[in-house]
Amino acid sequence: MGKNYWVAVVFMIAGNLAAAIEPADKDLIPEARAVLKYLESIYGKQVLAGANGTKGIESIRRVCGKEPAIVTFDLSGWNSPPWGKSYTSVVDKTIESAKSWWEHGGIVTMQLHWIHPANPDGSAWLGVHGRKSASPPFEFAAAMKPGTKAHEELMRDLKGHADYLKRLADARVPVLWRPFHEIEGGWFWWTDEKQPENTAALWRFMFNYFVKERKLHNLIWVYSAALRCGKGKDSTGNVEMRRRFYPGPEFVDIAGIDIYPNSYFGYGKPQDDTYAKAFEVMKQVAPGKMLALCECEAIPDPDRMAKEGPRWLYCLPWWEEGKRHPAEWIRKTYTHELMITREALPNFRRPK
User: Which one of 4, 279, 280, 282 is most buried, counting C-beta atoms within 10 A?
Assistant: First the structure.
């Protein structure tokens, strides 16, 4: 047998291995698998254009006549105390909005500004946030140990939010689930800056409860890093520290980062930057994963992304049209040939 035969065999085996890559949840529903397969098919070629919530959708549509391909919703009810009527009424509306967006042909992603489990009058932020009180450091070890008060508080919230996610699972709505966003930033209670492995363990704890116990098989797990990890200018590239927060590739489907303009850390306005430095950092933190710009001020320059890269999986502006997200930039980015908007998506609701 000649050399060319064995080269062909090697390539055939490599191709089969690539095709056999499974999602983090091995029992992912067909609709979610269809979304994940599509994302893999476009990654490195085109970029999904995103938006934040129903107001973001309406803003983009009003300005340029297009709709984003992917929209984020927040599972938090915001209003204290959690699980009171004013809290659940907000989440009820969010779930219906997410279902409606999926039925409209869009992709749903979701984060959770999780109010500190031990401080119902607080917020996701450790410090004072608006009218919300500051929270104490989270008791990671106690929270993951049955029989403790911290564990009871943690499970109360996990169960409550899982109940809402089950509504989406029952409706067969795939969700790009982005828990513990800006995971190593230090401003949210879930960041253990002294022992990052505790934060990674909490991710795995949630994964096991949602997937294995609650059977939420509609979730595509998105790991979302922060602009910095630690203090000082060098913290943007603090790869070794960032890796300590990462729960492991078997618990993650997609990885990404939240980047807003910040001259101190070397990130410019989206009109002048594609955030290639952040892309390279995340390639080292989560090797082999598709990388998304999970939050940004506006879509980075699509001409430069097309020519120089990086071609993020998706770019999700947090702001509606306004000073941070100008109308002329919306028209340029959401109509650019590199960007995929909602009308160009396939029908995921009838996967083959």
Answer: 282
